[in-house]
Design a protein that fits this description.
The complex is a heterodimer of chains A (274) and B (441).
Chain A: E1 18-21, E2 24-26, E3 33-35, H1 37-50, E4 55-60, H2 67-76, E5 82-87, H3 94-105, E6 109-113, H4 125-133, E7 137-147, E8 151-157, E9 163-169, E10 172-176, H5 188-193, E11 195-199, H6 207-210, E12 213-216, H7 232-240, E13 249-251, H8 256-269
Parallel strand pairs in A: 1-4, 1-6, 4-5, 5-11, 6-10, 7-10
Antiparallel strand pairs in A: 2-3, 7-8, 8-9
Helix pairs in contact in A: 3-4
Chain B: H1 9-16, H2 23-27, E1 32-34, E2 40-42, E3 48-50, E4 56-58, H3 66-69, E5 88-89, E6 96-101, H4 111-126, E7 131-138, H5 146-149, E8 153-157, H6 170-184, E9 188-192, H7 198-209, E10 214-220, E11 224-228, E12 234-239, E13 243-246, E14 258-259, E15 262-263, E16 276-282, E17 296-300, H8 307-317, E18 320-323, H9 325-329, E19 350-354, H10 360-365, E20 371-376, H11 382-386, E21 389-392, H12 395-424, H13 430-435
Parallel strand pairs in B: 5-14, 6-7, 6-9, 7-8, 8-15, 9-13, 10-13, 17-18, 17-19, 19-20, 20-21
Antiparallel strand pairs in B: 1-2, 3-4, 10-11, 11-12
Helix pairs in contact in B: 6-7, 8-12
Classes of the chains: A alpha/beta (274), B alpha/beta (441).
């Protein structure tokens, strides 16, 4: 994990409203419902920004007392009093419900995971929501450094553990990925005491999706390293060729200064040392 | 190998036989050229020799040409000339376009980009219309093999004053793609579903133009697409949509044809939003980067005696520290630093192994590293066989020397970098400057 010297006391103006979108996750091996990992990281980031004033929104079936409700209650177990559920049937499109919710209620920052853990998991919802609301969206946010009424400074996660600093105008949508702070543990008591606020909302069946065929994931074939050779001699050469990388440069009798220089030259040529 | 020049009867026979498929590669096409009207022209003055009766004779065997005159030396060269030119795939007056937006990490095609182009050609082949595979490239690039990767048309958005495509600028790129959409109306948009920006840009475009994309698509034809669903637990079969975000290894890259790479000009019609501003890369403490992701690892084994010096070198060079199992078992390094089969499988670009002999479990763990440097006293150990650069000697001396050379280099370089960073950070507060030394992107 990266240090978050700034995040523990990020100055949030009292007027700013932060919301997090939460979904019912799925354990990657057992498939059992749970809090989605990335959504939980988004909630964690929201709690660090504004404590228990963070509002949680979920769009989905009502499901009183079932295993889905228990999964949603896990978010409440992180220390939030209530969660808004926009009631929908199974297989409905969450976008119109969420868009109208945020148009009515308003928010300044919407946090979400990068992609869901079940179903299509296209990761499109934050983008579509941002487009509907006309807000900018920033993907794979690792940390929010500072916020004021006009803009926020954000740390974006890049491959290889690198970070980039961005300035984005408020309001905005941010998606959170694995690089963000690990979500806090769930406390059972608060999770059961927390309040699930049901709300009627727009219910549009996702027609396109109902035509799709879903099957358990097939193992993808590994790509074989096929050598295309025109002649028998080439094929023979390809089959008997020794793997590359055998026998690098060996420095034995040089002075230790020359040896160190060779290492430094390699680091420079690889762009490690600037 | 002896340097005796030997006759190669086979090459001579091919040189005499103009119908032989390898004839051109041996002879060269100097005497036969296409004229401006497209007719085949022979240059009678080019290849002649004096006949026995004093007359000029056109040499049809090709023996007087430089291509054939250099007798093939067996053992040193091999029979056939270097690289056969691949056939050129031409698309004239395309009715339809398949647009691939490439990542171009570091200005070069990634293997993922090549797979995407290969997929584009599969779709183009099955299309009824004449389809040109079009690549979109932002900013400067250093790729020279775009033709061999399968690019028929190239839309290159170059950096200008109005549009600058360096760093993170999804809004500008989106505006450029919208211009492409309105002018070409491509049949398909293909994006690599990657963390290098392809997925982000694809989702943005799909949301903006109101198309429903197929994400994580791994098997695509003109009719159906199979996508991987959440947690990699389901496959979704659906009709192939216009926008596709393709997984890695979705199709084989192009390797048997060359392509034209003709430039297509697209005007900027859409003005980008101005909500997101890139403030540049932030220096990250290398010891905090997860070992599996780290780019540069300095790893210690049994041969390291001076541990303070090792830590000093790692922090000075900005390396993430790793260790072999022995170093961890002896208590010199924490368990989460262990590299190898029982520890962490690393993907570093440069891996420096100090005093590690290279047990097979360790070599497995560094299998994906690009460059390996070994510092060791034993020239016969297994790490030496794996390493690209091996330095035999006491690690203490070599690390001390490396540290000294690095510091010398930095003190020479630091004046330049200070002026550079002043320029970029002129509008930043002094506090920020003290907090982070920012790299110039």
């Amino acid at each position: 994990m990266l240090p978050d010297a700034n995040s523990s006391n990020t100055p949030v103006s009292s007027g700013l409203k932060v919301a997090a979108l939460v979904s019912v996750g799925q354990h990657p091996k057992s498939g059992r419902p749970r809090r989605a990992d990335q959504d939980a990281r988004a909630v964690e980031m929201g709690i660090r920004l504004c404590g228990e004033h963070l509002s949680l929104v979920h769009a989905g079936p009502e499901g009183k007392g079932d295993i889905r409700e228990q999964a949603l209650r896990q978010y409440l177990g992180m220390g939030i009093k209530g969660l808004t559920i926009l009631h929908q049937q199974e297989g409905s499109d969450a976008l119109p419900a969420l868009a109208s919710h945020f148009k009515d209620q308003g928010a300044d920052i919407i946090l979400a995971g990068m992609r869901a853990e079940s179903g299509e998991a296209s990761g499109m919802l934050p983008y579509l929501l941002a487009d509907r609301l006309g807000w900018p969206i920033v993907s794979s946010v690792a940390d929010i450094i500072s916020i004021n009424e006009n803009d926020a400074e954000i740390l974006q996660a890049l491959p290889r553990g690198q970070r980039r600093k961005l300035r984005v105008s408020v309001p905005f949508v941010a998606t959170v990925d694995q690089a963000a702070q690990i979500p806090r543990q769930i406390a059972f008591g608060p999770s059961q005491r927390g309040h699930l606020k049901g709300q009627e909302s727009i219910d549009e069946i996702d027609q396109v999706k109902s035509d799709w065929e879903e099957t358990p994931a097939r193992k993808r074939p590994k790509r074989l390293n096929i050598k295309k050779a025109k002649s028998a001699a080439d094929r023979f050469k390809a089959a008997t060729a020794k793997p590359q990388g055998e026998g690098g440069k060996i420095m034995k009798d040089e002075s230790s200064q020359e040896k160190a220089q060779a290492i430094l030259d390699l680091l420079v040529s690889e762009g490690i040392v600037k | 190998m002896s340097d005796v020049i030997r006759r190669d009867p086979r090459a001579e026979r091919i040189a005499r036989n103009r119908l032989h498929p390898l004839h051109q590669s041996l002879v060269g096409a100097a005497t036969e050229q296409r004229g401006p009207t497209g007719l085949l022209r022979k240059d009678p003055r080019a290849g002649y020799f004096m006949g026995p009766n004093g007359l000029r004779r056109i040499d049809r065997s090709g023996a007087s040409h430089p291509g054939a005159a250099t007798r093939v030396q067996r053992g040193t060269g091999g029979g056939v000339s270097t690289e056969p030119t691949l056939p050129l795939h031409q698309v004239e007056n395309p009715d339809n376009f398949i647009v691939c937006v490439l990542d171009m990490v570091g200005g070069r095609l990634t293997s993922h980009d090549k797979d995407v182009l290969g997929q584009a050609h599969i779709l183009a082949k099955s299309s009824a219309q004449t389809t040109a595979v079009t690549a979109v490239v932002f900013g400067d690039h250093r790729e020279e093999a775009l033709d061999k990767a399968g690019v028929d048309r190239l839309i290159h958005f170059e950096n200008s004053d109005a549009n600058h495509y360096q760093g993170y600028c999804p809004e500008q790129k989106l505006a450029a793609l919208q211009s492409v959409e309105s002018q070409l109306a491509p049949g398909h948009w293909l994006f690599p579903d990657s963390i290098h920006g392809g997925a982000d840009l694809g989702c943005r475009l799909a949301a903006r133009i109101g198309e429903r994309p197929a994400n994580h698509a791994w098997q695509v034809d003109s009719e159906n697409t199979i996508c991987r669903g959440g947690s990699d637990r389901i496959d979704i079969k659906r009709q192939t949509p216009r926008i596709l975000l393709l997984a890695e290894e979705c199709a084989m890259p192009i390797d048997e044809t060359r392509h034209e790479v003709l430039a297509l000009d697209v005007e900027h019609l859409v003005t980008p939003d101005q909500h997101i501003q890139d403030l540049g890369a932030v220096d990250v403490d290398p010891s905090q980067i997860p070992l599996a992701e780290a780019e540069f690892i300095l790893s210690a084994g049994n041969g390291v005696k001076d541990w303070d010096q090792f830590h000093d070198v790692a922090s000075t060079l900005g390396a993430t520290e790793g260790a072999s199992r022995v170093a961890v078992d002896d208590g010199f390094m924490p368990r989460f630093r262990q590299v190898g089969a029982t520890g962490i499988w690393v993907t570093a670009r440069v891996y420096v192994a100090v005093g590690i002999s290279g047990a097979i479990q360790h070599l497995q763990g560094i299998g994906q590293c690009e460059k390996v440097v070994a510092i060791n006293t034993d020239p016969g150990c297994d790490m030496v066989k794996r390493a690209d650069l091996t330095v035999i000697g006491k690690s203490q001396d070599i690390l001390a020397e490396l540290l000294r050379l690095y510091k010398e280099r930095q003190s020479g370089v630091s004046d330049d970098s200070a002026t550079l960073s002043d320029k970029t950070e002129s509008d930043e507060s002094v506090e920020d400057q003290n907090k982070e030394a920012r790299r110039v992107a």
